[in-house]
Amino acid sequence: MTTFDPERDLRLERFMKASPEMVWRCWTDPELFAQWFAPKPVKVSDVHYEFHPGGAANLTMTLPDGTVMPLQGCVVEVEPARRLVTTDAMTAGFRPAGQPFLTAITELIPQDGGTLYRATALHNSAEASAKHEQMGFYDGWGTTFRQLDELSDSLT
Questions:
Q1: Where are the domains of the chain?
Q2: How is residue 73 annotated by DSSP?
Q3: How much is the pLDDT for 143?
Q4: Cβ count near 65 (within 10 Å)
Q5: pLDDT, tens digit, for every residue of 20-36?
Q6: Which ranges of the chain does DSSP label H, i.e. alpha helix?
Q7: Can you say whether the dihedral through the CA atoms of 102, 79, 26, 141 is positive or negative?
Q8: How would residue 156 be classed by pLDDT, with cut points 50, 70 and 90?
Q9: Mean pLDDT to the nearest integer, 35-51
Q10: What are phi and psi of 69, to 5 degrees?
């Protein structure tokens, strides 16, 4: 289990009305994933996740100005409808990647008929964490939480 380090890690939690299974469906269905993963009007495409250790965690984001951002990573750990750990420090097959930015831990905790959704971004330094925060971590990830909450609740 990972210990939260307030110097290097960022975390958001939100209660969602939908069950962990519905929230998980929004992670595992590429069409649903593309609807919530980035703050609108950013577009998400080419979603390719393989939900097993060593599997791909890839997608492409297109910013409103047309900038295309391909993101490639690796699934490190998966417990369906409970926990997903991904990182950009590796690509599929646990291949080392270039400059790592973060490891993301997503936890779906059953609570009061819904889900406590906890997302933790682990960084290799306090400086990297501060940079991510300055890039808009809380606003951006908070927006995606709202989008995911609305989408997953609409499926129930």
A1: 9-155
A2: -
A3: 96
A4: 5
A5: 999 999 999 999 999 99
A6: 20-28, 30-36, 126-134, 137-155
A7: negative
A8: low
A9: 97
A10: -125, 95
Q: How far apart are the first and last CA of the chain?
A: 31
Token pair recorded at residue 113: 């008929």
Q: What is the pLDDT of residue 2?
A: 79
Q: What is the pTM of this model?
A: 0.94
Q: Please name the residue that has the structure tokens 């997953």.
A: 152
pLDDT tens per residue, range 119-138: 999 999 999 999 999 999 99
Q: Which amino acid is at 132?
A: H
CATH of domain 9-155: 3.30.530.20
CB atoms within 10 A of CB 143: 16
The rounded distance, in Å, linking the Cα atoms of 122 and 109 is 19
The Cα–Cα gap between 14 and 115 comes to 8
Specify burial of residue 99 (Cβ count, 10 A radius: 0-12, 13-18, 19+).
exposed
Q: Contact at 8 Å (CB) between 37 and 57?
A: no
